[in-house]
Structure formats: structure tokens, C-alpha cells
Design brief:
By secondary structure, the protein is α+β, with helices and mostly antiparallel strands. The protein folds into four domains: about 170 residues, no CATH class; about 30 residues, no CATH class; about 120 residues, CBS-domain, CATH 3.10.580.10; about 80 residues, 2-Layer Sandwich (Uridine Diphospho-n-acetylenolpyruvylglucosamine Reductase, domain 3). Helices cover about 55% and strands about 15% of the residues. It is built from 19 helices and 13 strands. Strands 8-9-12-11-10 form a five-stranded antiparallel β-sheet. Helix 1 packs parallel to helix 6, helix 3 packs across helix 7 and helix 4 packs antiparallel against helix 6.
Length: about 475
């Protein structure tokens, strides 16, 4: 028995086990490598990352290459192991003076080699490399990409036959070819979001936002709308003074307008359109001021509705049922709340917000609020005014032309703005109240007197249709 020959043969087997480990490691690394990381590396000019992406897009080919390598190494290792068993170990057992051992010398030698070789292949050739690949997937995948690509080219014919055979076998049992497709089930994504939140990778708000996006795609408008019994609307024949009084109390910037009953919505009334009419000293005629309503079925998905409302530049839609009757209304805010949660506008928040609505219909406003936000809240400011003054404090200083004291006021487009709080030389709080013009007051008084003379209620019934009280 040659010690030198045995050493070389054992060394060769160790080499084969390491090569087997390389193939096992490369297989798991390429499968586990994150596309996002590989895309980033590829965009930075990493050629190996591009090769890995190609392999992920054509998995049958790279798996066939891996399998060729593993099969070749395993077969060669078995042959060399058999040679070691017969050539070097068998003679050791044949000289033992026990007939049972001597007669089974070859089987014993082969068994010992198989056990040792299997253990080495399992630990060094499979388990350890795969664990390493899971930990450093992208790095190892990029390292292994070029050798595997070279091997794939060298064994191109065999790889092509194996790949075609694999696809044919799958097709014959009805499995669709998904080569190049990237598919991650929705539930798996949800699972990763939950795991990310549990392990601190995602903040609670981030996880909630991601879950909201998934729910968004499965939600109909009926699930988010304000039902008909709960929304506020204005009768088309409501007198001007009642409309203005209601607008100061409600805090909304848009109102559905109906004729006779809520199943006949004829338009949407915008605060800014009302103020534009008042500014021009014209009579407010609802039928001429309202805008056309946008009707949608209650079965439409909110994802589609959001796109449509964005395209049409609308903020409110009237929801109808299968019979064409009004079912409710929905705003863009209602839709977005399905993703981001409850939205608390600064102009309709509770006590302590930037804009506090009082019971008498006035508003106490933080002077740092921008005129754009006030415009959205229904207080009319032109685009030029918003650019010139930016904030309410700047507007007050520009109007008064001095640093004011508490109680000083100015009027603008039907509103009186009064300074109610100063912090040294800074305007802190301003009260805004809607004023009825004298001609409107006179017209309103005459309207009430006329209704009273005819034995009617001074305030028309059902003029303002408010939400029904919950029982």
C-alpha cells in the first residue's frame, strides 16, 4: 500500500467535497439573493450582479448547470472512494485472523468509505455552504456567477437538453412555464410586513400604511362613503341668508344640493363660488352657482375611483345604488383615509388646532396659518394675495400697515378679521367671522317678513338637510 498514493487520493476527495460545497452554496445564494440589491449593484456597473439577475430570470438553465456539476463531482467522488476502499482499506481487513471479517473485508472497507464520504459531503458539501449562502446571499451569488456562467457555456448542449426536458416534463403535467416571471403572493408580502414590524424593521405607522395599501385595492366605495342619512345637503330653494348662516356653522367647503329630496341631487355648492358671487354684489341663485355632480356606483373600487377623481380634478362624488337612488357621498379624503388612517384637517380639528371653529360660527385662527390653507377652509383669498402675504399674520400687517393691538380688525371679502392675541410684537391669534352684507341682510329680512305674512315659518322646513341623529 503506497502512502503517497493514498494521500493524493484523499486530497482529491477533499477537493471534490469543496467543489460540491461551492455548487450547493452558489445554488442557495442565487435563489436567495434579493433582486432589489442586485438591481442596485447592476445599475452601478457590477457585471456579476447582471449575470445573477439573468440566472434568476432563467432558473432552469442555472439549476441544470448546478446539477451537472454536483452529479459529476458526486460520481467522481464515489469512484475515487471505491478505489480507496478496495486498494487501501481492504488489505487491512484481509490480514485480520477472523474469517468473518476477512471474508467481508471489501464490504467493510466500502461501508467505512461511504460513511466518511457521506458525512463530509453533508457537512462540508451541503449544510455549511448553504447556511453561509443564506447569510451572505448577494456577495456569494456575485462571486459564483462568472464560474457558473463559464460552466454553463462549456456544457451548453447538455444544459440545453436538460432544460428542454425539464420544461417538457412540467408542461406534460399541466404546470405553466413561468420563466422570467417574478411573483410574490400577497399573503407572503403581508407576512413580511408583520415580521418587519415584530422585529423593529418597520415602524407601526409604516406597517399600518403598507397594510392600508393592500386593503385599498380590495375596498369598494360603499365601504368608505358617508351614508345618505349622515351627510349634510342644501335644498335648491334655500334662501341666501340661511345658506350663509349654515356655511359659517358647518365648517365644510362643499355641499350637495338637492331638489325635493336627497334622491335628486342636482349639483355641488362650493364656498368659494358663493363668496365670488357675494363679492360681485350679485344675488345668490343656487341653480346658477352650483357645479354638476359626479355620480358613481356603490360597487366601484376606490382605487379606480381615486384615479378617476384625480383625472377629473374632483373632490366629491355622489354614490348611487343599483336602482339609481342616492346611497351616500364620498370625498377624496374618505378614500385616502383607507391608506393613511383618519385625517384630522387643521381647519376642522378640535380645540387646540390651528383653526378652531366656535359654536357661534366664528373661527379662532393661529396667525401662522397660510392663506392657502384658509382658502381650502372656505375663507376666500386670491392667488395673488396668497403669494403676497403667505400667512394670515402677514395679511393682517399688510392690511393694517402697523403692528396692531388686541381688538383691532380689518374686513375682507365678507369676513371681519380681529386680532385677539398678541405675543409682544407678533400676531398670535385672529378671529374670523363671516359678515352678511347690508343688502343681503335687508333681502333676508324681507324674505322672512314675506314668509311670516303668508303664515309660513320664517325658516323654510328642510332647507338645510342635516345628518339624522343616531338612535
Amino acid at each position: 500500500m503506497s502512502i503517497g498514493s493514498l494521500f493524493l487520493e484523499v486530497l482529491f476527495i477533499v477537493f471534490l467535497v469543496v467543489i460540491n460545497g461551492f455548487f450547493s452554496c452558489a445554488e442557495i445564494a442565487i435563489i436567495s439573493a434579493k433582486r432589489s440589491v442586485l438591481d442596485k449593484l447592476s445599475s452601478e456597473g457590477n457585471e456579476s450582479a447582471k449575470l445573477v439577475l439573468d440566472m434568476k430570470n432563467e432558473p432552469e438553465r442555472f439549476l441544470a448547470t448546478i446539477q451537472i456539476g454536483v452529479t459529476f463531482v458526486s460520481t467522481l467522488g464515489s469512484v475515487v472512494g471505491g478505489v480507496i476502499a478496495v486498494k487501501h482499506l481492504k488489505p487491512v481487513f484481509t490480514i485480520i485472523p477472523i474469517s468473518l471479517i476477512r471474508d467481508g473485508a471489501e464490504l467493510i472497507a466500502l461501508t467505512i468509505v461511504v460513511v466518511i464520504l457521506s458525512y463530509a459531503l453533508l457537512v462540508v458539501g451541503e449544510l455549511a455552504p448553504k447556511s453561509l449562502a443564506l447569510k451572505y446571499a448577494e456577495r456569494i451569488a456575485c462571486f459564483a456567477a462568472k464560474p457558473l456562467s463559464l460552466l454553463s457555456k462549456c456544457t451548453g448542449l447538455i444544459v440545453g437538453v436538460l432544460t428542454s426536458s425539464t420544461r417538457f416534463a412540467l408542461k406534460s403535467i399541466g404546470v405553466k412555464d413561468t420563466t422570467g416571471e417574478v411573483f410574490l403572493p400577497r399573503e407572503e408580502i403581508r407576512y413580511h410586513i408583520r415580521e418587519g414590524r415584530a422585529h423593529g424593521v418597520l415602524e407601526e405607522t409604516e406597517a399600518a400604511l403598507l397594510h392600508g395599501v393592500f386593503n385599498f385595492a380590495d375596498t369598494t366605495v360603499k365601504e368608505v362613503m358617508v351614508p345618505k342619512p349622515q351627510f349634510t345637503a342644501i335644498d335648491l330653494n334655500t334662501p341666501e341668508d340661511e345658506i350663509l348662516h349654515f356655511m359659517t356653522e358647518s365648517g365644510f367647503s362643499r355641499y350637495p344640493v338637492y331638489r325635493d329630496n336627497l334622491n335628486h341631487i342636482v349639483g355641488i355648492l362650493f364656498n368659494k363660488d358663493v363668496f365670488r358671487v357675494l363679492e360681485s354684489d350679485k344675488e345668490l341663485v343656487l341653480s346658477e352657482t352650483i357645479r354638476a355632480p359626479y355620480f358613481v356606483p356603490n360597487s366601484i373600487m376606490i382605487s379606480r375611483l381615486l384615479r378617476e377623481m384625480q383625472r377629473r380634478k374632483l373632490h366629491m362624488a355622489i354614490v348611487v345604488d343599483e336602482n339609481g337612488e342616492v346611497d351616500g357621498l364620498v370625498t377624496i379624503e374618505d378614500i385616502l383615509e383607507e391608506i393613511v388612517g383618519e385625517i384630522e384637517d387643521e381647519y376642522d380639528v378640535e380645540k387646540g388646532g390651528l383653526i378652531e371653529r366656535q359654536r357661534d360660527g366664528t373661527m379662532v385662527i393661529d396667525a401662522s396659518v397660510s392663506l392657502l390653507d384658509l382658502n381650502d377652509a372656505g375663507v376666500p383669498f386670491s392667488e395673488d394675495e396668497c403669494k403676497e402675504f403667505n400667512t394670515l399674520a402677514g395679511f393682517m400687517l399688510g392690511k393694517l400697515q402697523r403692528i396692531p393691538r388686541g381688538g383691532e380688525f380689518t374686513t375682507h371679502k365678507g369676513y371681519r378679521f380681529t386680532v385677539v392675541d398678541m405675543e409682544q410684537f407678533r400676531i398670535a391669534k385672529v378671529k374670523a367671522e363671516l359678515l352678511l352684507r347690508p343688502d343681503i341682510k335687508t333681502r333676508a329680512s324681507r324674505s322672512r317678513a314675506s314668509r311670516a305674512a303668508q303664515g309660513q315659518s320664517p325658516t323654510p322646513p328642510n332647507g338645510i338637510r342635516k345628518p339624522e341623529a343616531e338612535t
